[in-house]
Amino acid sequence: MTRLLDGRDLALGPEGLAEHVQRLGPLPAAGRSFIDVLVRSGLSGRGGAAYPAGLKWQSVAAQSNGTAVVIVNGAEGEPRSLKDRLLMTKRPHLILDGASLAARAVRAKHVVLYIGEEHHAARESMARALAERKDEERRLVRTVAAPARYVAGASSAAVHLVDDGIATPTTAPPSAHERGVDGAPTLVQNVETLAQVALIARTGSSTGTLLVTVAGGVLRPGVLEIQAQTTVAAAVELAGGASEPPDAVLLGGYFGTWMKAANAWGLPLDHDALRARGLSLGCGVIGVLPSSRCVVCEVAGIMRYLASESSAQCGPCFFGLRALADACTAIAERGANSEDLQRLRRWSAEVSGRGACHHPDGAVMFLQSALTTFPDEFAGHRAHLRLSA
Amino acid sequence: MKPNSTPLSKVSGCSQGRFSGRVNTGAMNGNTQDRIRARDAAFRLLNRLTTGAAVGALAGVGVFGAVSASTIPGITTTSQSASTTTSTSTSTGTSTSTGLGSSSTPVNSASSGSGVVVSGGT
Amino acid sequence: MSDTLLWYTTRGAGAVSLVLLTAVIVLGILSALRVQAAGWPRFLTTGLHRNLALMTLVFLALHIVTAVVDPFTHLGWLTAVVPFSSSYRTFWLGLGTIAFELLLAIVVTSLARGYIGHAAWRLVHWFTYASWPIAVIHGIGTGTDTWSAWLLAITVICVVAVVAAIGFRVTAGSRDPLKEPRTTFQAAAQRRETR
Amino acid sequence: MRLAVDRIKCDGHGQCAELLPELIRLDDWGYPIIARADVPDHLVPMAQRAVAGCPVLALALQQRTG
Question: Same domain for A274 and A301?
Fold first, then answer.
């Protein structure tokens, strides 16, 4: 079975068009009927929300009169995720194949390559790959730099950036696939999802694999392509094994869930299986926290980052996340006190569900999972001796 | 840095300053019953103030009218003929009454039916 | 006899309207400054602002109707609507008409705010800052009583009140806590993202 | 009927919480926290007043859908 990262050694440069076609065969001509194949494949989005790709394509296609827009989402704003930029850098033609299929299936007028501004290698590789494509494909495509911010990868943020030049996300309806760029139905799809689409078009079914990034306390941190259902323990093993006895795992990136390492080990890495357990793989980051690092300080650091990534659109997010981050930092620095802990709990509950976008919800879920997974670590936290900077 | 202590966080959680946060803790979060009472009291106050202002304003029209009448009462002349009426303006010394004089001619002739001309001073 | 009464009423209602309008403006500015105290919630300021604004219209109507009905000046109803259409004190009365119409527009848009939207309402509301000085100049210029001590005192008090309130408003800056973060964020985002 | 805030328009004047303490309170930064429950009939007039009184028209009374 073909996999996403098959082909030439990843240490080598990007795979060119000739090599790509030789390896996989030409991209089959497919129009709207391909959407049925996609629905049957059961492919779900790989950007984090795991929304069924086929349904999204159906919705956009139904509203498109040759007016739709396809946004190829390579923003990858998640700090510890590397898989999207690896794919863009090494297998750009898979992504462009997927984008081309999407453009035909939903009868799109434009295709926008939305690539993180700091992912330089990925942008270069995609630009070079695009230059190799046929004229009629190239004419549709333009490239836009996604700002290096956490929220830039949200589909509404991508639409706002293309429309207004500022990547602010919102949750207010209508969604991008109803009214996106210039009011046209817009298909925003993650690059890994589109690469899967390219293979589905050739084989009729998904590869059954997914890309994950193993980060933190492992010997060979980086991107892995694993079979769905692979356990966390096996993925960590594939990443060279834990560098020191791990304490905790952060599953799914900064909007993900904290787990005690022992509880995480046996979990199958699969969107559906995790959702059934109330968990999410998000954008596929498996963060392993080594026992030498303090979980409270890690949580405080990530909360500070998330607070500073607020777009200042609404008060609960901007002021709420800052206050939460400050309370975390206070506990990390000065040691636990019941007042700060109580505030953390109250503010988390109050901020949740009151943002203009999902950013505060994601941040609060992250914090709440930390508080429920590590109640003793938070309650018993001692002040760290501050080392001179 | 040892590779095995790679943090998950992008920024440090315990060696940074604070966000300049503004917190006005619980300013509005008293007991709901107290807040309902405060609202109802404020509505009563609003009604009283509005009524007071209305009464005051009406009285003000009276008072200011009376004051204006006592300071510059104007002069009422009863005109006998429709042709020429002498309208007398009370001069306050600083004003010019030319505008009144010129424009009042048609006015006077038109209003002569009543026989009463009120001439406003300047 | 009743004609002189009309004339006194015009002058009295004019003075009262100026005082009311001044109070409305000061309350409006206080509400933008989000003033509150124990027993004085913010909605009291805006509620009073609104009530007094409607009351101002009533007394302006009295001022205008008595002036128009007054046979001496022979203004005619057109004067109340079309600026500079009176033969009597054309310019100064014209200012009064303009001030009244601006005020009417402000009140009507405020009552229909839910339909026209916040941005349009806000735009029209800025005309308040034109309406009030025009009204003051109308009072001084038309002024039967301009140089009477009582009206002079009222005018001076009103001017001082509004100038002080505007001064506070300008120096206090925006009371929207998100104003500054938003400006900072958007400026930074525009710098990086509009390329 | 149910109250909803446009979070982007809202700039924390707090008048809604003053007018409708039964359903709205403010968080520690002055932004409204609205009860998820439906607006009971006897509070609808006051809720409408709060909607009309919002200085930036960020509050809306919506017919519950579905």
Answer: no
